[in-house]
Amino acid sequence: MADPKGFLTTGREVAQTRPAQERVKDWNEVYVPGSLLPVISKQAGRCMDCGIPFCHNGCPLGNLIPEWNDYAYREDWAAAGERLHATNNFPEFTGRLCPAPCEAACVLGINQPAVTIKNVEVSIIDKAWDANDVKPQPPERLSGKTVAVIGSGPAGLAAAQQLTRAGHTVAVYERADRVGGLLRYGIPEFKMEKRHINRRIEQMRAEGTKFRTGVEIGRDVDAAQLRRRYDAVVIAAGATVSRDLPVPGRDLKGIHFAMEYLPLANKVQEGDYVAPPITAEGKHVVVIGGGDTGADCVGTAHRQGAASVTQLEIMPRPGEERNANQPWPTFPMLYKVTSAHEEGGERVYSVSTTHFEGDEDGNVQYLHLVEVEFKDGKLEQKAGTERRIPAQLVTLAMGFTGTDRSNGLVEQFGLELDERGNVARDADFATNVDGVFVAGDAGRGQSLIVWAIAEGRSAARGVDHYLTGASELPAPIRPTDRALTV
């Protein structure tokens, strides 16, 4: 145990954010650079080194949290980085983007603020990069086997890195023009600067992984042909079909899926555009959906100079404390104020969109909504609560319904789907097609980045075993495992 009295003498501290009025003028990450370093060792000392560390169960990667907390407390950063990488290929991604179910499961969190696990994690990996401790790990020998990975999001990258290090020759196919999947184009720059992705890709290239961008399997390359070219295939194409809102006026100009809007803002940061083709500048913006993607739209609209930003959520506002029916160590539904919400805008709960209203040129101008409530388990509209709000740009951020079938990938492979529309797989992450495996949201459905990386690592073991008859690669989860929720 690092500091036997740490959880008694040290209060919880988290990374400092730059002032909202300052950070909305740029696209840099919202945190004050270096703000964690003066406090992070003491924060790691709050870890109680529990006999049964439930944080392991909260994290699907099985991160060795008490161990790297102990090393961080002692400022043995090299050892902390080694322990961090033992279970997680990309801790700089999870340390910035994961909602930290490990902290919800922290034993200290039963009656005190939990250990700042996420902040300790990102501090360790940032120091590892600064110290040049993150080096390529090419295989000692090649197996002679080839693997194609479809998709370069966190699941695809994790599977590719594991399989490359196991000695297989791996090529990653990405339909976008750059590697990274939703990490590249779905996550705004202010949440994670893309330099973090770029240096990981360079590490993977040095290890031997090949990348093929601008190639969509199913459209540009026939899936069955791809299967014949490689000894195994991993499908990590994500669950990219956005949930739509079929109400009158949906066809008006100015209504877009979040994943139509957010990538364009990122492409400006990549230098592809001077200004995005879809912009919030000077407009009244309405974001439909109260999750993280919706918050990303809010923060992006602020930076583009929106006249106003309103975020709508059909569910009631969550409480700020755990409900009795969401006990520790489950991940609770709490009212969360992200950095984007700190920057302004209005959040409206328990409302449903009835229709959109446009001008004579077919541009959306207003959104009509009504308050809703649950009665006998059903969602009902409250009479007399209808109203309209200005809406010149509307983004739909209501989640995703499954993997893309329009490109022909599912049909060309001949893949079976489960009852939820995801690609079906067995205990080894193998599909019904011999030699074809699936990892991440394509098989699990929309989920968190830690689950995607865990799936990529686990699927890599299944592939390695299929190719060689045995495997020493770790498999942190099974396809049927689910988060600790109620």
Please provide a written account of the structure:
- The protein has 486 residues and is α/β, with parallel strands linked by helices.
- It has helices at 6-9, 20-23, 40-44, 55-58, 65-73, 77-85, 91-97, 101-104, 117-130, 154-165, 182-185, 195-207, 223-229, 258-269, 292-303, 339-342, 409-413, 441-444, 449-468; strands at residues 146-150, 169-174, 210-213, 232-235, 241-242, 255-257, 284-288, 308-313, 346-349, 351-358, 364-375, 378-381, 387-390, 393-396, 400-402, 436-438.
- 31% of the residues lie in helices and 16% in strands.
- The strands form four sheets. It has a five-stranded parallel β-sheet, sandwiched between helices.
- α5 (65-73) runs antiparallel to α6 and α14 crosses α15.
- The protein starts with 5 loop residues before the first helix and ends in an 18-residue tail after the last helix.
- The mean pLDDT is 96.
Question: Can you describe this structure in just a few lines?
Answer:
With 486 residues, this protein is an alpha/beta fold. Helix content is 31%, strand content 16%.
